[in-house]
Amino acid sequence: MYPLKAAVEVIQLGRISYGRALQVQKLYVRRHLDSKDKLHNALLLCEHPPVYTIGIRQALYPFEEEQRLKLLGAEFFRSNRGGLITFHGPGQLVCYPILNLGCFKKSVRWYVCELERTVINLCRKYGIKAATSPNTGVWVGDNKICAIGIHCGRYITSHGLALNCNTDMGWFENIVPCGIVGKGVTSLSQELGRDVSIEESIPRLLETFSDQFDCTLHRGEYSNNE
Amino acid sequence: MSNVTLVEQFNPLLRVDFELKNSFKLLTQINKDRALSMSFDNNLLTEVHGLEYVVGLGIPANLKYTKDHEWVSIEGDVATVGITHFAQKELGDIVYVEVETLDQTLDKDEVFGTVEAVKTVSDLFLPLSGEIIAFNDALESNPESVNADPYGAGWMIKIKISNLAEVEELLSTESSEIPTIEI
């Protein structure tokens, strides 16, 4: 007897601010924690206006740093995910899987690994050779194409990954991405030499996600009436 | 007299018992025995050899546990809390432990801090209601001690227990995901 595949609801949030997305994530996490069943897995897809975000290790980014980055025209947020500083902006596909790992495998390390593999498979569909490295994230050579930073409480995941499709790379030059000195960033567009939009990448991401996590996806609508 | 039996035993022949820095205990033991039996009824001499290898693994048993893989050590009304060997292995290399609830009084199951490893941040849940009276500052500069010595130097907080009845609700052994070796 094969175990039933987990079902994941795909919610497209479009262009929303990072702060708003944090609230939406909290809502979906709450739904998991409030119910005893395992039927609230969701995959949030969105795009943010320019914003720099940091994780819980905020001592590395004092107030002056925050001000400097804000003056460049971006927002600045401190979140409860893992990892150091990164940038989110137009042209970057941001994906927040709010999953109950009890439906998959109760291991946070396994989950991060699967996310990395999902993106590597996505890149392979485009003919790009991506790989993992001692630093988390998905890399093409010495350049990071996708950043990953997650939070987990009682096996409910939040935050997720950010894949550069046709992001303006200039924004990354103002920071040391993820605190890793000496490495660069890249995007699908940069690797392929043509414009690759978020709309084009979404179906492929969903395909590789459902393959890697062995789950079924169905489209859902965002509703905040709970 | 119809039967003479001679029994010799080394119990143990060799025994090595040691405790590791992370409070794990390892035991290896070899027992040998031999029994010689002479039966005068049918002039039969029987010899039986035995060689026994014993391997044991011990984990600290004077601790209580939560379903979130945290250990709790109780002394009077002060509880020391950390995460178990299973939890640290699960998380991977820990790079940061944040506890901003020092001196606060919280209820059981509330989040008292977070632990960051491999690009993930996991919540830490308070096993017993009470006031958080101490945080292991050494973890700021040495978060990896949670991996190396989760039951000793990797302790995280101390709680002044407000409701001793809650201690009964803690688990006396870690939940079933921990592997057990039986020989």
TrEMBL record, chain A:
PROSITE patterns linked: BPL_LPL_CATALYTIC, LIPB
Subcellular location: Mitochondrion
Signal peptide: none
Residues at the catalytic site: C178
Class of this enzyme: transferase
Molecular function via GO: lipoyl(octanoyl) transferase activity
CDD domains to which the protein is assigned, alphabetical: LipB (cd16444)
Annotated residues for binding of substrate: R81, G82, G83, L84, I85, T86, F87, H88, A147, I148, G149, G160, L161, A162
GO biological process: protein lipoylation
Reactions mediated catalytically: octanoyl-[ACP] + L-lysyl-[protein] = N(6)-octanoyl-L-lysyl-[protein] + holo-[ACP] + H(+)
Domain BPL/LPL catalytic intervals: 37-217
Keywords: Acyltransferase, Mitochondrion, Transferase
UniProt cross-references to InterPro entries, sorted A to Z: aa-tRNA-synth_II/BPL/LPL, BPL_LPL_catalytic, Octanoyltransferase, Octanoyltransferase_CS
Gene Ontology cellular-component terms listed: mitochondrion
Superkingdom, natural source: Eukaryota
Site feature: Lowers pKa of active site Cys: K144
EC number, UniProt record: 2.3.1.181
PANTHER family membership: LIPOYLTRANSFERASE 2, MITOCHONDRIAL-RELATED, OCTANOYLTRANSFERASE
Family: Belongs to the LipB family.
Role description: Catalyzes the transfer of endogenously produced octanoic acid from octanoyl-acyl-carrier-protein onto the lipoyl domains of lipoate-dependent enzymes. Lipoyl-ACP can also act as a substrate although octanoyl-ACP is likely to be the physiological substrate.
Record's protein name: Octanoyl-[acyl-carrier-protein]:protein N-octanoyltransferase LIPT2, mitochondrial
Annotated organism of origin: Hucho hucho (huchen)
From TrEMBL, chain B:
Bound cofactor: record note: Binds 1 lipoyl cofactor covalently.
Localization, UniProt: Mitochondrion
Cofactor(s) it depends on: (R)-lipoate
Primary localisation category: mitochondrion
Residue intervals of the Lipoyl-binding domain: 78-160
GO biological process per UniProt: glycine decarboxylation via glycine cleavage system; protein lipoylation
Name by which UniProt lists this protein: Glycine cleavage system H protein
Biological source species: Hucho hucho
Lineage: Eukaryota, Metazoa, Chordata, Craniata, Vertebrata
